[in-house]
Amino acid sequence: MEFNTDIFLNNIAQTTDSPYLITIERAEGIYLYAPDGKRYTDLISGIGVSNIGHRHPKVVKAIKEQVDKHLHVMVYGEFIQSAPNLLAKKITSLLPPHLDCCYFVNSGTEANEGALKLAKRYTRRTEIVSFRKSYHGSTHGSMSVSGNEVKKQAFRPLLPDVKFIDFNVAHDLEKITYATACVIVETIQGDAGVRVPSQGYMKALRKRCDETGALLIFDEIQCGMGRTGKLFAFEHFGIAPDILTIAKAFGGGLPIGSFISSKKIMQSLTHDPMLGHITTFGGNPVCCASALATLEVIEEENLLEQVEAKGKLFEELLKHPHIKEVRRIGLMFAIDFDSADRVNQIVMNAKELGIITYWFLSHPYSFRIAPPLTITEQEIKESCATILKAIENA
Ligand code: PMP
């Protein structure tokens, strides 16, 4: 099938030399269905969105109920029982006490934009420290702090005063100074190919930020919402950020993100200058209702408790001489091979066999697996048998 880029340009497969085009008509749980009835197992959760599976009945019901009440309205100081209010109450109840104030936005990239602006206003500093191979989004600010130099090249000049350091390399932390407004970091680097930092490193990062007064921003847009077996990945490290950004799986399939911080820090954006960030649709009630239902599903179905065992099962079953390395935390995997060509072939083979895996933006030697947390033991076994076939034929 030909893909008509004249009329629709969203989300074209990253590698144009191996097009990955599937028409999907319907989705349910971990499965996607093409118009001809072909079934695909979604092992990437729509790149980190459907952590509780596609069209979870509780989420669909909450969306329908909100649609029947009202869609977007613009009333300040709005109703105590409004969807954004209930969502803010819920999400802050699941976070450390100092993360008690949310700003709802429309995407991950916007959550990071808000977080960066907030840090600059609060600290009155301008320098931002980020990490090589990181990904924080595609608008100018979030792209400026993303570590993929090749992809940024066409858009220079970008935001000035951004410094890049190596992830999980302790001596580089000295480059965070008293001039640094903030450090933005993916708690687990996702598109660098699932890089899990050490406990010691994360504690040292927190300490260096405390020493210098730089705010620490954790981008959990990909690794949050239960993906690693904790609701938020920073819980693995016994530290917390000054600002947290979330999106993707937060909305359970609808577009919503948030930057979350303390009231004290957040006030710098509302008081000086007045309305330091404006967004018409941020906190859209339908998206908030969907996000609230998503958080309730994670709790009610005890999904977090099952993540580690399911992750281990994948790891045990995915053994093949062509696999060089498996990096994993919870149900977030990078499977490494000896060449990008082999990875391309495996991803394409898997697709033909009805399994959706995918590439990483900044690590061509791996493919990703990040299935819905609701995947069953039987589905894991079936998926792994198919993936091994895809590897064998590559
Ligand atoms: N940060 C991270 C870690 C991400 O993985 C992504 C999306 N891949 C973003 C930010 C940007 O999110 P969005 O696509 O919703 O703008």
Automatic annotation (TrEMBL):
Keyword Coiled coil: no
PROSITE patterns: AA_TRANSFER_CLASS_3
InterPro entries registered for this protein in UniProt: Aminotrans_3, Aminotrans_3_PPA_site, Class-III_PLP-dep_AT, PyrdxlP-dep_Trfase, PyrdxlP-dep_Trfase_major, PyrdxlP-dep_Trfase_small
Domain of life the protein comes from: Bacteria
Needed co-factor(s): pyridoxal 5'-phosphate
Record's keyword terms, sorted: Aminotransferase, Pyridoxal phosphate, Transferase
Pfam families named in the record: Aminotran_3
GO molecular function per UniProt: identical protein binding; pyridoxal phosphate binding; transaminase activity
Keyword Chaperone: no
PANTHER family: ACETYLORNITHINE AMINOTRANSFERASE, MITOCHONDRIAL, AMINOTRANSFERASE CLASS III
Family classification: Belongs to the class-III pyridoxal-phosphate-dependent aminotransferase family.
Protein name: Acetylornithine/succinyldiaminopimelate/putrescine aminotransferase
